Amino acid sequence: MQDKQKLKAAITTGLIYVLLLAVTILIPASEWITLFLLPIPFVSYTSRYGLRDSLSLGGLVLVIAVLLTLFVFVVTLPFTLLAVLTGTLIGYSIHHKRHAYETWALGTVGVSIGLVTLFVLIQGISQVDLIAEYETMVEESIKTSQAIMGSTGVSVSQEDLNTLRDQFLQFIKLLPTLLIAAAIGIAFVTQWLSYKWLNWRGNRNLAFPPFRTFKLPKSVIWIFLIAIVCSWFSDPTSAFATGVLNVTNIIGILLTLQGVSFLFFYFYQKRISKAVPILIVIFGIIFLPVGLYMTRILGIIDVGMDLRERMKQTK
């Protein structure tokens, strides 16, 4: 009886996924929505039956995706890999009743691998080096801008042009940071939607805890400090320096979240409306990068000095 239920659930999961994948492939721009929905069938199946059965289902779906990639649509494999990894990791965490933030971290890993695979596959199939193409586009844009300003009598020094070029090319160095930041956002939305689906279908009570409870371990501070020190003594043009730059930026994002979380905690302790920290965050976004650095500094102080525990003790 149990095997029949698993088989029925597996077939249902596969059909729902195929339907979502077909919508993604056939309807232009639908991927902006279905990207968050594709992992949910695997979240539902894994959260109910565990990792072993989910790996069997995921392996079968991936084999089908490889065949479709070879003969039909090349984007089938990366989308499927992203959905299977993300859905299985989130579902596994839910199955074992892990904390919501740990589940979020596992989901981020799955999305990151999927996005990297998508990037690599696009380059491999198209036989185009996207990074080289971007560098060429930057050079052409600078030359065009220089010609336009020259025709209007505006002179631009070579130093200014080099600075502008470096700023545009910085995007390439920060590509890993951007991919992980995107993965964090995609995993969060997917997990939130999965909670809603599972609560509706399975009469559960899954939810993210209040954001004011978000807290990083103190080890993050040490990693951040070590990365900053390494950046002082590394060659700015080396691959090591690029890696260090991305590490500091990724941890910086997490510390910014920590700072925002502390704002919500502080105003909650003071029994002040949630609208106040929300407005502060909005103004912080508007006045970037000042708002970003202020919340990051607040996050560093909160993690390093345990401000929340101090506030609880003095309350």
Structure description:
The chain has 315 residues and is mostly helical. The protein has three domains: 166 residues; 37 residues, no CATH class; 106 residues, no CATH class. 82% of the residues lie in helices and 0% in strands. It is built from 14 helices and no strands. Helix 5 packs antiparallel against helix 6, helix 9 crosses helix 11 and helix 12 crosses helix 13. The longest helix is centred in the C-terminal third of the chain and has 31 residues. The protein starts with a helix and ends with a helix.
The parts where pLDDT drops under 50 for at least 5 residues are none
The biggest beta sheet is recorded as:
none
Distance between the termini: 56 Å
Mean pLDDT: 82
State the helicity in percent bands: over 70%
Summarize the structure.
With 315 residues, this protein is mainly α. It has three domains: 1-132 and 176-209; 133-169, no CATH class; 210-315, no CATH class. The chain has 14 helices and no strands.
Please describe the topology of this protein:
Blueprint (H helix, E strand, L loop, with lengths): L1 H25 L4 H7 L2 H10 L1 H21 L4 H20 L4 H27 L3 H22 L6 H16 L1 H28 L16 H14 L6 H31 L5 H12 L3 H16 L1 H8 L1
Helix pairs in contact: 1-2, 1-3, 3-4, 3-5, 4-5, 5-6, 6-9, 7-8, 9-11, 10-11, 11-12, 11-13, 12-13
